[in-house]
Design brief:
It is a single chain. The protein is α+β, with helices and mostly antiparallel strands. It folds into 3 domains: about 5-105 and about 185-205, Ribosomal protein L10, N-terminal RNA-binding domain (Alpha-Beta Plaits), CATH 3.30.70.1730; about 120-175, Ribosomal protein L10, N-terminal fragment, domain II (Molybdopterin biosynthesis moea protein, domain 2), CATH 3.90.105.20; about 210-335, no CATH class. It contains 13 helices and 12 strands. The protein has helices at about 5-20, 35-45, 55-65, 95-100, 135-140, 170-175, 200-205, 210-225, 235-255, 260-280, 285-305, 315-320, 325-335; strands at about 25-30, 50, 85-90, 105, 120, 125, 145, 150-155, 155-160, 180-185, 185-195, 195-200. It has a 5-stranded antiparallel sheet, with helices on both faces. The longest helix has 20 residues, at about 285-305. It is elongated and about 120 Å long.
Length: about 325
């Protein structure tokens, strides 16, 4: 029988206990995170989560053991590879993802790291004064020259394309140029809760995404209900007001007199009478005076900001009508 060190058994038991006591278990990628930064991240999680780093085979043993009491948790085994850790917490997977995303910070590149983006040195001054370092910059292919007492780069120069390994000499120079191309932090690979494993593609939801989606859906549903005249508690006031407005417009267009539209019809008829009188040349003292007054009002209206003609006021008036008044108006028009 193979002897297993007592500390390994104790560590596996401790991890299993953490997984039993917390509803959420996650595997996080720890690749490239400096030890000091790991300690800082661990401290930031301590209030709501426990982070355990150990050999991958011990984490796999712990998951197998935990699966006996928490079926489905063995799904996390696929994510145990490379440099990783187990996080156990009472934070739901979505909040945990956001919390871990906040740990991401820029970091210098190491030789052989894969560039996450195009690494470009942009034209302009560098932090360096004249000296031997200008030769090092030129060896990297950077068009360096002396400008106003500083070493400067003549034009934007790409050094490494995204997806390519970063050479050792480039990795050594980038921090001196204040270029930190790598992003390091606890990258969540998968989280498990209530029998379901959540990947980052599921957990990466923008802030306010669902509230915005529901607001849009509610707005579209309301507009559709009003468009098809579907009565509900939410749409009835708008539907009655819309019906009153359309009915009023129809009655005015067809010249059907009612208590609600008689003033508008008379004003419209009077306006049309004056237009006919003006066009035909017919006049008397009363009409002449009114035509003269109308001409003065028309000239003064743009400067004074006067309101539209009487028949155009219907739209404004209807917007302020109450549900009861609108219903009464419909009854008077067609009752």
């Amino acid at each position: 029988m193979v002897h297993v060190a007592a500390w390994k058994k104790d560590l596996v038991s401790e991890i299993v206990q953490d997984m039993m006591e917390n509803p959420v278990v996650a595997i996080v990628d720890m690749h490239g995170i400096p030890g000091q930064q790991i300690q800082s991240m661990r401290a930031g999680l301590r209030a709501h989560a426990q982070l355990k780093m150990t050999k991958n085979n011990l984490m796999l043993l712990a998951l197998d053991e935990a699966a006996k009491q928490k079926p489905g948790i063995e799904k996390l085994k696929e994510a145990v590879h490379g440099q990783c850790a187990i996080v156990t917490t009472d934070i739901d997977p979505f909040k945990l993802y956001k919390k871990l995303e906040a740990t991401m910070t820029p970091a210098p590149a190491k030789p052989g790291d894969i560039a996450p983006m195009d690494i470009i040195v942009y034209k302009g001054p560098t932090p360096f004064g004249p000296g031997p370092i200008i030769g090092e910059l030129q060896k990297l292919g950077l068009p360096a020259f002396i400008d106003a007492g500083k070493i400067a780069i003549k034009k934007d120069t790409p050094l490494v394309k995204a997806g390519e390994p970063i050479p050792a000499n480039v990795a050594a120079m980038l921090p001196k140029l204040d270029i930190l191309p790598m992003i390091v932090g606890m990258d969540l690979r998968v989280a498990f809760e209530d029998g379901v494993a959540y990947g980052p593609e599921t957990l990466n939801i923008p802030e306010g995404y669902y509230s915005s989606m529901f607001a849009t859906a509610a707005s579209n549903a309301f507009a559709l209900a009003v468009s098809v005249a579907y009565p509900t508690k939410e749409t009835i006031r708008t539907l009655v007001t819309k019906a009153f407005r359309e009915t009023m417009a129809l009655s005015i267009s067809a010249a059907i007199p009612t208590r609600e539209n008689i003033e508008i019809l008379l004003a419209k008829a009077d306006s049309q009478m004056l237009a006919v009188a003006s066009a035909s040349g017919y006049t008397n003292e009363n009409i002449a005076a009114r035509l003269s007054l109308a001409a003065k009002v028309a000239v003064a209206a743009p400067a004074a900001g006067t309101s539209a003609p009487a028949e155009q006021k219907v739209e404004q008036e209807v917007e302020q009508v109450s549900e009861e008044d609108a219903a009464a108006g419909l009854s008077a028009l067609f009752g």
